[in-house]
Amino acid sequence: MLDKNGIAKRIAQEVQDGYYVNLGIGIPTLVANFVREDISVEFQSENGVLGMGPFPYEGEEDADIINAGKQTITTLPGASFFDSAMSFSMIRGRHVDLTILGAMEVAENGDIANWKIPGKMVKGMGGAMDLVASAENIIVAMMHTNRAGQSKLLKKCTLPLTGVACVKKIVTNLAVLEVTPDGFLLLERAPGVDIETIQKATEGKLIVNDNIPEMMI
Q1: Alpha helices (runs of H) in the chain, residue ranges in sequence order
Q2: What integer pLDDT is reported at residue 122 of this predicted model?
Q3: What does each C-alpha distance from 165 to 5, 22, 33, 88, 135 come to in angstroms?
Q4: Which backbone phi and psi does 7 adopt, to 5 degrees?
Q5: Are strands 175-180 and 169-171 parallel, antiparallel or unpaired?
Q6: Is 196 a catalytic residue?
Q7: Residues 131-178: pLDDT tens digits?
Q8: Which CA distances in Å does 86 have to 44, 46, 114, 156?
Q9: How far apart are CA 176 and CA 149, in angstroms?
Q10: DSSP letters along 104-165, please?
């Protein structure tokens, strides 16, 4: 199985040269650490940053430079800072090429629920609803099951929806899956994980073709 860094490292392979990418809170923030050095990528955070870099080394943090999750970040040469109105103009204007989000649940038709945690106090959905409504390419980064061992890839979401039929691809600690009209298409297995394990951990319809390769990370 992959850990959180492994999930982020695999998702970094989806980032292409010249992309503007929004990184959500949680695992997605780690993606900036693993993007290839030979490509140019602009990472955007909805609190008003364009040009985020990797996380700072310990002792080099600047408490005034943070992402949407209030984590300290670095910025690359040419980075810019702006207000939320400008940030969401970028998002709603579809100037972001790729959105990477975490999720509590994803349905087999691409619905996503990622802002309401049962029994927990939350401030709201943040910018997630704008992101999923505006982005054309959405990748979800999450664990395949919750802490109780229950699947997070469902036939139908049970939590309040953030977006409807919007997720394109999911990378979990077990697998890479594509959302299709017929269900979750298994594209890759995590190293050392067999198909049976993935099937048992997936409540929604899982489509398995022959010769599913292991992830290359």
Answers
A1: 4-12, 84-92, 128-134, 195-200
A2: 65
A3: 27, 19, 29, 21, 12
A4: -60, -45
A5: antiparallel
A6: no
A7: 888 888 999 999 999 999 999 999 999 999 999 999 999 999 999 999
A8: 12, 9, 24, 35
A9: 19
A10: SEEETTS-EE-S--TTS-----TTHHHHHHH-S-EEEE--SB-TTS-BSEESS--SPPSBSS
Q: So what's the pLDDT on residue 109?
A: 97
**What CA–CA distance (Å, rounded) separates 189 from 216?**
10
Are the C-beta atoms of residues 72 and 143 closer than 8 Å to each other?
no
d(CA 50, CA 48): 7
Residue 161 — φ and ψ, nearest 5°? Answer: -75, 140
Q: Are 111 and 164 in contact (CB under 8 A)?
A: yes
Alpha carbon of residue 139 to chain centroid: 5
User: pTM for the complete prediction?
Assistant: 0.92
Residue 182 CA, distance from chain mean position: 22
Report the candidate in 138, 207, 143, 151 with the shortest Cα–Cα distance to residue 172: 143
Long-range contacts of 113-121 (CB under 8 A, 24+ apart): 113/157, 113/158, 113/159, 113/160, 113/161, 113/162, 114/24, 114/140, 114/162, 115/160, 115/162, 116/159, 116/160, 118/159
**C-alpha–C-alpha distance, residues 2 and 174, integer Å:** 7
Name the residue among 200, 188, 203 with its Cα closest to residue 153.
Answer: 203
For 100, which DSSP code? E
Catalytic residue among 46, 108, 188, 203: 46
